[in-house]
């Protein structure tokens, strides 16, 4: 339009839309980070439970060489990385990037 109003899409209208979009992105990022944190926590608990079960099996089967000896397994190393701390660091950075301070 010649008067600079762009129909109903005035600069103020567009600015408000951008601010709303910023808020939506921040909310989605925070919810995603929360979900990842919960998954990381669950992963750590599962890792602990798996190691406890393996320890119990090795104890019960100690006379037969543990779990590996009982089933004649050559590659029987159990190694589950605990990625919880790394995931929590990533989600912390996600929240920082998405956060838009209140502007006056």
TrEMBL record:
InterPro entries according to UniProt: TLV/ENV_coat_polyprotein
This chain's protein is named: ENR1 protein
């Amino acid at each position: 339009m010649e008067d600079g109003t762009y129909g109903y899409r005035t600069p103020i209208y567009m600015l408000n839309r951008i601010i709303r979009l910023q808020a939506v992105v921040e909310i989605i990022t925070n919810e995603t980070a929360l979900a990842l944190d919960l998954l990381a926590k669950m992963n750590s608990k599962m890792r602990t439970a798996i190691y406890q079960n393996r320890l119990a099996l090795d104890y019960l089967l100690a006379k037969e060489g543990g779990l590996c000896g009982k089933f004649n397994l050559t590659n029987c190393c159990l190694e589950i990385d605990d990625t919880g701390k790394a995931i929590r660091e990533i989600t912390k950075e996600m929240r920082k990037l998405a956060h838009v301070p209140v502007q006056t």
